[in-house]
Amino acid sequence: MNPQIPLYQKAVFDHFGIPVTHIIDDECTHGDFMNRIFKTMTDTDYLIFFDIDCVPTRKEWLPALLNDLREPRTLAGGAQTANHIREAQNLYVSPAFFGISTAYLKELDYPDMNITDDADAGQNLTDVVTQQGGNLIFWWPTSLEDKQWYLHHPVHNRFGHGTTYNDMVYHAFESRFDGSKRFQKKCKKILPLTTVLRMKWNQLMKR
Fold first, then answer.
1. What count of other Cβ atoms lies within 10 Å of the Cβ of residue 71?
2. Is pLDDT at 207 greater than 80 in this prediction?
3. Sign of the CA dihedral running 92, 98, 102, 104
4. CB of 65 closer than 8 Å to CB of 76
5. Which of 138, 44, 48 is nearest to 91 (CA)?
6. pLDDT category, 204, cuts 50, 70, 90?
7. What SS3 class is residue 159?
8. What are the residue boundaries of the structural domains of the chain, listed by start?
9. How far apart are CA 120 and CA 23, in angstroms?
10. What is the mean pLDDT of the chain?
11. CB proximity list for 19: less than 8 A, separation 6 or greater
12. Mean pLDDT of 55-80
């Protein structure tokens, strides 16, 4: 991972006055990480996850998400489709950005977040919520830099690299492959110029 990615993500969250906790564990899969957090971080009302290359673009994102989650038994977050399984006939709340209450997770008995032959990472959570009559609130793509993938919805039917959801949350997707240039560019647009210049200066001083 480009070491600039967490620095820019933290800078954006700091800009909006919200602390972010980075957890990096090379021995843990994406699904195992979420499973572990579900079962250990129980002293809070809600859990909110962001991929490392995902950031809010406006301060209103948190009140909007919390308002969604105030409805009991709710899972809310970015809409995603795994194009490589189920003939792309699937729609689920993306593990890249979502929120859920800890009480609801306990009620659901902590659905497994790992990839299977029939489900992408995180998709099982949406499936279990649906099966048990819970409430799904999707945040839909409102702007796209790259309409790369099909999204299984009649209106919001594309997503890809550089997707903004509900005009409030941006996900670069797959920054591990492109060196995060897209992600850094977006963060620079969100951040004040003084912050960007300070980060560049700090980077130069470390060389």
1. 11
2. no
3. negative
4. yes
5. 138
6. confident
7. strand
8. 4-205
9. 21
10. 94
11. 13
12. 97
- Phi, psi of 76, deg, nearest 5: -135, 140
- Tokens standing for residue 146: 């790259």
Q: Please, which residues have CB within 8 angstroms of residue 57's CB and are 6 or more apart in sequence? A: 164, 167, 168, 169, 170, 186, 190
- Residue 79's beta-bridge partner residues? 93
Q: Which pair of tokens denotes residue 118?
A: 């029939």
Q: Are 123 and 94 in contact (CB under 8 A)?
A: no
Q: Identify any residues that bridge with 119 across adjacent strands, giving them in sequence order.
A: 116
Structure tokens at 26: 């090379």
Q: Which fold has domain 4-205?
A: Spore Coat Polysaccharide Biosynthesis Protein SpsA; Chain A (3.90.550)
Both ends of the chain: CA-CA distance in Å? 18
Cα separation, 55 vs 49, in Å, equals: 10
CB proximity list for 22: less than 8 A, separation 6 or greater: 6, 9, 10, 52
Q: Tokens at residue 89, please?
A: 């006939």
Task: Give, in order, the Cα–Cα distances in Å from 178 to each of 24, 70, 172, 173, 183.
Answer: 19, 37, 10, 10, 10
Give the mean pLDDT of 97-126.
97
State yes or no: pLDDT of 38 exceeds 80. yes
Whole-angstrom distance, CA of residue 48 vs CA of residue 95 = 10
CA nearest 174: which of 14, 45, 51?
51
> How much is the pLDDT for 179?
61
